[in-house]
């Protein structure tokens, strides 16, 4: 019996659908097999045989690191999509090669230490153990590089609230334990040129510099003086001299521009926290030509701004010091006017880059610019990034939007406009898709550029695979090909506005990563039969012509899945088997069901019986942005058609019939006025009931046409989805749901030419669909 039991258990494991056995062929750059390469897995090490082959046994997605003598260690994310094919992994020779890893925005304050619910991810006083645990799933990835950089967008310290910058809306401070996370990640350089280094004024700048210096972590882009902030960093990578320099254009001037001036009419009711904007305070600097008078803060700002270019450095410092003594809410977040902060981008910045390039083998520029949450880079960041390359930069890495944007080739050099958040706590779905840029160099020649798809699972960065990795790749690819720049209108709204198409890289899914090439491939076409009353799927590893083709038939709707997280599959490479990203619930009668999957290996199940007194629900953990249009002309007129929405899902019921529905809560998020705290207002809810049958079925629930209606003058721009099951009238019921998608529909014929991540067609007829594959 003792001998039979292990054999029986091994048979069960062999039949376990959760187990998959990918085959890996490791080769060198000439295609010759690499024997003795080591695959570092979660459970141990596996070595390739004489033919360069290795077979893995995995029960969940995983990030494998593959190493061999004389080769660069290569990251290999493996999900179930790769289980049915031979994975050929090419290792690059290490001799003469340098690897750079670049990421986006990093902080570990706010919800990390004081969550809205549940336990804090970061606990102070534990020696950094919890901070290190937050990044454990990517802990061995970033440090594979010779130079790994992050944008550290926070003060590091334990400064009191009373010392924070008066009047500043967003204040970011992370505890010193944050440095343990950076250690675990293997960060080599922290870029500090951003709009949060001065959130606790110069005391915050000093605290951050002291913490980093005491920890031995090099940094660039901030200081207590302009000279200190603007100083570049020279990093030695095995003899290769890498110059790193950082700038920001997010300096506080835009906030000051919105403050009321003396002639503005004050509202009838003024909140206590807004009183400072409307007060007349006595101030002046007669010696510098500013007479003493009662002024509002906006007029005081204009008095400074109008004459500062004519003043010497000492005169400007004195003028600013006198102004902020009376108006401490005047915002200035960069090192200038006699105080510290981040390094400002200005007319002299290209010259500083050129000087650094003259003394460096490889020059990397970090730019903190653009507009938060915008799908396209701003005009100013495009201009600055290109100017940086014209001045001698080999690579430009931008951040600040907190969402994925595109990449561009400019004069043969690579610009990454936004890689998304890497460690951040924002609660929009679009802020959770993330990426790591891996570039391999021979001196200043770019040998290879690759994207590692990531996702912030409950604010923890994790590598992702399968459809979630493809979703990250398509977002980056669409952003790269988008012929738009973000432009702020007179109403302060930021819109993707038509411009000349950028020189976008080609992107190809390659063993769980995204390999960049010189140019996008030529489009191909696909003949699609669209049946009335049914949804027709489009390839999800391709971008589709928004119009489908140059002359699309009228009446066809093209659909974009905005949620992307409704499959309930385990697609992230963390240590938890069976967990899913993007959904939450607080009832034990909701769970991920692997025994009765409707699609793939898992579904969401909700259970109620006659003793139940309340409905049970699961909801998406973050709101989905709802743009009115995705491309505008120079007059702020939308170039695509009006949108409608649907919810698609697979369902099945076991047991008694019970009321079920999808609920959509529509919100208006207002972040336009930088002098006021943003508002997130629930406008209305739409309930979409459905009947689940005893056999699996696809259900499409169309939103009513007034779902996008104004409420008190506010238009919805975000939605939060719930799946709800009521208690049955008799017996008990189990509701299975899968492939939950919130779909945006636009008529194809009303769309402009261009490439988009489209997923569905709806209507009737046969159509040729143009696409670019990944």
Furnish the topology, listing elements before pairings.
Layout: H1 4-15, E1 23-27, E2 38-41, E3 44-47, E4 53-55, E5 62-67, E6 74-78, E7 86-90, E8 98-106, H2 129-134, E9 147-152, E10 155-156, E11 173-174, H3 178-185, E12 189-191, H4 201-215, E13 219-220, E14 222-223, H5 226-230, E15 233-237, E16 240-248, H6 253-258, H7 275-278, E17 281-285, E18 290-295, H8 297-307, H9 313-326, E19 341-342, H10 349-358, E20 362-368, H11 379-390, E21 395-399, E22 407-410, E23 413-416, E24 421-423, E25 433-442, E26 445-457, E27 460-463, H12 466-481, E28 484-488, E29 494-498, E30 506-510, E31 513-517, E32 524-530, E33 535-537, E34 542-545, E35 557-561, E36 583-584, E37 590-593, E38 603-609, E39 616-620, E40 624-625, E41 644-655, E42 660-670, E43 679-690, E44 697-702, E45 718-725, E46 732-747, E47 755-756, E48 760-762, E49 765-773
């Amino acid at each position: 019996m003792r001998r039979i039991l292990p054999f029986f258990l091994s048979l069960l494991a062999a039949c376990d659908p959760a187990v998959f056995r990918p085959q890996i062929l490791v080769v060198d750059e000439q295609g010759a097999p690499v024997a003795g390469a080591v695959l570092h897995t979660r459970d141990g090490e596996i070595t390739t045989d004489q033919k360069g082959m290795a077979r893995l046994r995995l029960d969940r997605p995983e990030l494998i690191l593959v190493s061999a003598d004389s080769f660069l260690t290569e990251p290999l994310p493996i999900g179930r999509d790769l289980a049915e094919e031979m994975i050929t992994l090419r290792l690059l020779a290490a001799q003469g090669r340098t690897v750079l890893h670049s990421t986006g925005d990093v902080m570990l304050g706010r919800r990390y230490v004081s969550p809205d619910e549940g336990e804090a991810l970061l606990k102070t006083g534990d020696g950094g153990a919890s901070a290190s645990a937050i990044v454990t799933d990517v802990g061995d990835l970033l440090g594979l590089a010779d130079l790994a950089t992050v944008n550290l967008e926070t003060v590091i310290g334990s400064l009191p609230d009373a010392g924070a910058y008066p009047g500043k809306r967003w204040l970011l401070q992370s505890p010193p334990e944050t440095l343990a996370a950076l250690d675990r990640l293997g960060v080599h350089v922290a870029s500090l040129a951003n709009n949060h280094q001065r959130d606790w004024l110069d005391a915050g700048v000093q605290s951050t510099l002291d913490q980093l210096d005491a920890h031995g972590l090099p940094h660039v882009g901030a200081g207590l003086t302009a000279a200190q902030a603007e100083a570049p960093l020279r990093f030695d990578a095995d003899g290769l001299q890498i110059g790193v320099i950082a700038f920001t254009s997010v300096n506080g001037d835009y906030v000051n521009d919105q403050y009321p001036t003396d002639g503005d009419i004050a509202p009838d009711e003024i909140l206590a926290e807004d009183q400072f904007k409307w007060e007349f305070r006595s101030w002046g600097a007669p010696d510098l030509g500013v007479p003493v008078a009662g002024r509002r803060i906006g007029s005081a700002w204009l008095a400074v701004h109008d004459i500062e270019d004519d003043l010497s450095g000492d005169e400007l410092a004195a003028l600013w010091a006198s102004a902020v003594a009376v108006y401490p809410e005047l915002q200035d977040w960069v090192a200038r006017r006699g105080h510290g902060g981040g390094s400002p981008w200005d007319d002299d910045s290209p010259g500083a880059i050129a000087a650094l390039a003259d003394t460096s083998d490889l020059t990397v520029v970090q730019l903190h610019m653009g507009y938060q949450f915008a799908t396209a880079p701003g005009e100013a960041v495009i201009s600055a990034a290109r100017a940086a390359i014209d001045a001698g930069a080999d690579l430009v890495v931008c951040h600040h939007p907190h969402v994925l944007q595109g990449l561009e080739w400019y004069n043969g050099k690579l610009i990454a406009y936004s890689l998304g958040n890497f460690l951040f706590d924002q609660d929009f779905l679009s802020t959770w898709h993330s990426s790591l840029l891996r570039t391999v160099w021979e001196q200043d020649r770019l040998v290879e550029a690759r994207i590692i798809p990531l996702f912030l699972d409950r604010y923890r960065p994790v590598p992702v695979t399968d459809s979630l990795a493809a979703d990250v790749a398509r977002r980056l690819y669409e952003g790269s090909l988008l012929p738009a720049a973000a432009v702020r209108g007179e109403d302060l709204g930021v819109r993707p506005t038509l411009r000349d198409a950028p020189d976008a890289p080609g992107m190809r899914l390659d063993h769980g990563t995204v390999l960049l090439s010189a140019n996008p491939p030529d489009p191909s076409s696909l003949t699609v039969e669209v049946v009335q009353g049914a949804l027709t799927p489009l390839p999800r590893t391709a971008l589709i012509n928004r119009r489908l083709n140059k002359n699309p038939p009228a009446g066809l709707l093209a659909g974009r899945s905005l949620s992307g997280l409704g499959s309930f599959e385990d697609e992230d490479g963390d240590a938890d088997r069976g967990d899913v990203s993007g959904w939450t619930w607080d009832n034990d009668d909701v769970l991920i069901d692997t025994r009765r999957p409707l699609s793939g290996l898992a579904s969401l199940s909700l259970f109620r019986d006659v003793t139940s007194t309340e409905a049970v629900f699961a909801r998406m953990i973050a709101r989905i942005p709802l743009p009115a249009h995705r491309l505008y002309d120079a007059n702020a007129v939308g170039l695509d058609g009006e949108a409608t929405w649907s919810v698609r899902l697979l369902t099945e019921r076991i047991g008694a019939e019970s009321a079920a529905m999808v609920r959509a809560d529509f919100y208006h998020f207002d972040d336009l006025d930088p002098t006021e705290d943003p508002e997130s207002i629930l406008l209305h809810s739409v309930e979409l009931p459905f009947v689940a049958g005893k056999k699996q079925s696809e259900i499409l629930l169309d939103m009513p046409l007034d779902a996008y209606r104004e409420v008190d003058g506010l238009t919805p721009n975000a939605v939060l989805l719930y799946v709800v099951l009521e208690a049955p009238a008799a017996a008990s019921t189990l509701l299975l749901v899968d492939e939950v998608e919130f779909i945006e529909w636009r008529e194809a014929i009303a769309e402009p030419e261009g490439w988009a991540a489209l997923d569905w067609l709806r209507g009737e007829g046969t159509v040729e669909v143009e696409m670019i594959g990944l």
